[in-house]
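Researcher: Next sequence.
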Amino acid sequence: MGRKVILSRKGFDGTTGGKPSPIMDDKFVSLPIPRADSGDFYKNLIYSPTKSYLKVMKDLGINLYSEAHLDPDLQKSIKKERPNNWRGLFGQAGTSQGTLHNRDVGKGDIFLFFGWFKEARKINGEWKYNKTAPDIHAIFGYLEVDRVFDIRARNPVPSWTKYHPHIKKRKDYGNDRNSVYIATKAFSTHSDKPGWGSFMYDEKLVLTKPTAKSRSFWELPPAFRGEQDQFTHDIKIWNELPNGKIEMQTNGRGDQEMYISGNPEVVAWAENLITSCLIYE
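Model: Next structure:
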């Protein structure tokens, strides 16, 4: 069976966090969603040598939250200490993990993580949203799956993964499905890149159609022609344009795992994004 691509919604959104994640220093900086009693405090998550995530959030007018659900965990530098063998991790549970399980998502498949973003600029040493910048949906990171661990079934996990919230807080998920995906060490079609990463800004990663009034109105490449049935959401708008691109919009938020497909053209598109777009640690 060939590999699959998954479009997975993560980070702050209109109902969880309530503000866009910022684009700062030409980086997509996805804000992990709030989670009480997680033990991962925003004040301890590192953006730069002088700025924690909490300080960035306060700069942007986000003052409500203290602890985060750090997932997906794609940036080595976000935590002060990492083991040498650390790799990117992603956990999923409940209905959304059921979606991944039912579509046989596993080794070799590619998660493309997207979220809500808006450009921010530094003014007098503080980050502020650029009021004239558009609100967009964009792909901010990726993870190529090496192994999947069923946490509900108590699969043995590498010791270095035990900090991850889907493992550390496994009791919070009760009897719901709960799994953790570990990235490959190197990306399989481009060994110079790791199997996970956070992207620098590139217009190729923007999903929202240019000039669209709503961030949820997307323009997808021609590889997505005929792929509407592979979306887990109800499709509100689907137009195949004369230039081959697709205009689309879904109804509501739907499943976090928005799209899953093994279409070779979509796989090639995802591989090209990962190999051609710059990442940061």
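Model: The chain has a mean pLDDT of 95. The first strand starts at residue 5 and ends at 9.
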